[in-house]
Amino acid sequence: MYYIRKCQITTIKQTTDVAKIDPTKFEKFGYFGDSESEFLEFLSENTLDLSKLDQETKNELVKIYSYNEGFEKDDLEQESWIEIGEVNQDGLFESSLNTFNKKYDF
Length: 106
Description:
single chain; alpha+beta; disordered C terminus
């Protein structure tokens, strides 16, 4: 006799709305980089005083920083990262770089 059971791994990826951000608006915070990877690193490693930004930029940042991750259970491990990329002709976001140092194809 064999004892058999089925196992399943479920992965959930949640994303925010896409924020359109002009990196030159962050020079007042000390950002003077010129690449996507430098900008993602800057955003992920710095806490910004949003009151120093114009309303349009604040509205865009709120899309990614006031996001409620949900699924808050003690036994659920969560990781988050930010991505940079383009919105294609179909309106879908195509990630080209992220702060996870990998490209994910979800």
